[in-house]
Every structure is written in structure tokens, then in C-alpha cells.
């Protein structure tokens, strides 16, 4: 890609950012970069996983979600959308829309066992917290063909399915 001498610092703000991205050598790499998957958490669920429907749960703590999921989780999973992706690099952008306590995200192979030291070396396992009300976080991962689960242990949500195949 050709480089241009453009005084982007003079432009400032969004224009400077847009022009620097356009004329930087990383602009091509960004086009081939990870695909972003948006997931929205509300009380005890991921909206996109349950057909885009906010079921209206209003938990005040994780314990409330445990009670709700014990009552409704199994049936909800039979209707839940299985996320289907191709192998590749992804960023899961997870938003805590309106849950009044800290949330997180956990993506792992469907047969992952955190107690197995070999799984920690050979299986996919990404997780993190710090998603307070109105905040989002990015979780980057390269997915190979296989079956995965994703959830939020802090909310807690059901274990939703993700299938990766080429």
C-alpha cells in the first residue's frame, strides 16, 4: 500500500483516526483481522442465544440466576440458537446491558474440564470478568473445528452451544 504524507494531526478527532487507519500499513491487516461477534448479556441470559428475546429476568445477584436457571434453563436450552461459525479468528464483544453486578464471559471446548491439567494445554479456554453494568469487553480467540460452550459463570447463564466447521 502506498504511503502518503497527510498531516493527520492537524485534522484531529475522528477524521485523524480514519485517515491514519486508511493510510497506515496495518489497514490491510485490519480487513483480514478477526471477525467480531456481538453478545449482549441481560439477567441470566445472552439475548442473541435465545432468539434475540430478552426474557425479562431481573436478578439482584448470581444466586437469583441459579434459581431461575434451575427452573427454566433446560427448556430454554432446547430452544436456544446454536451459534455456527467457520474456523478462524474471532473477537467476542460481550456487553453487560443492564445487570447490576459484575459479569464475565467463558468460552471453552465442550469437553473442557478445568481440573484436567492436559486440557489447560490442549483445549480452548478463554474467560474474564470486569463487565459492570453498561460496559463491554473483548475476548479474542482462534477457533478450530469442533464443539464449544459459552456462558457467564458470574451471571450465571446456561451453557450455550457453538459449533465450528469449515
Low-confidence segments, given as residue ranges, are 1-30
- How far is it from the N-terminal to the C-terminal residue, by CA? 31 Å
Considering DSSP H and I runs of 4 or more, what fraction of the residues is helical?
A: 25-40%
The backbone outline, from C-alpha atoms, is globular
Give the CATH architecture of the largest domain.
Answer: Sandwich
Average predicted confidence as pLDDT: 85
Number of helices: 5
Tell me the fraction of residues in β-strands, as a range.
Answer: 25-35%
General description of the model:
- The chain is α+β, with helices and mostly antiparallel strands and 166 residues long.
- It folds into 2 domains: 1-32, no CATH class; 34-164, Cupredoxins -  blue copper proteins (Immunoglobulin-like), CATH 2.60.40.420.
- It is built from 5 helices and 9 strands; from the N terminus they run αααββαβββαββββ.
- The model is unreliable at 1-30 (pLDDT under 50).
Amino acid at each position: 500500500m502506498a504511503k502518503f504524507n497527510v498531516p493527520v494531526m492537524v485534522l484531529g478527532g475522528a477524521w485523524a483516526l480514519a485517515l491514519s487507519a486508511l493510510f497506515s500499513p496495518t489497514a490491510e491487516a485490519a480487513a483480514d483481522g478477526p471477525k467480531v461477534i456481538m453478545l449482549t448479556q441481560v439477567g441470566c441470559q445472552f439475548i442473541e442465544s435465545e432468539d434475540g428475546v430478552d426474557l425479562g429476568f431481573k436478578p439482584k445477584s448470581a444466586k437469583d440466576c441459579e434459581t431461575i436457571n434451575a427452573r427454566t434453563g433446560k427448556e430454554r436450552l432446547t430452544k436456544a440458537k446454536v451459534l455456527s461459525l467457520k474456523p478462524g479468528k474471532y473477537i467476542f464483544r460481550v456487553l453487560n446491558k443492564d445487570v447490576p453486578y459484575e459479569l464475565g464471559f467463558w468460552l471453552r471446548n465442550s469437553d473442557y474440564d478445568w481440573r484436567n491439567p492436559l486440557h489447560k494445554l490442549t483445549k480452548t479456554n478463554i474467560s474474564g470478568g470486569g463487565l459492570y453494568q453498561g460496559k463491554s469487553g473483548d475476548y479474542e480467540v482462534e477457533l478450530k473445528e469442533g464443539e464449544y460452550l459459552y456462558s457467564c459463570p458470574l451471571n450465571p447463564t446456561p451453557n450455550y452451544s457453538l459449533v465450528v466447521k469449515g
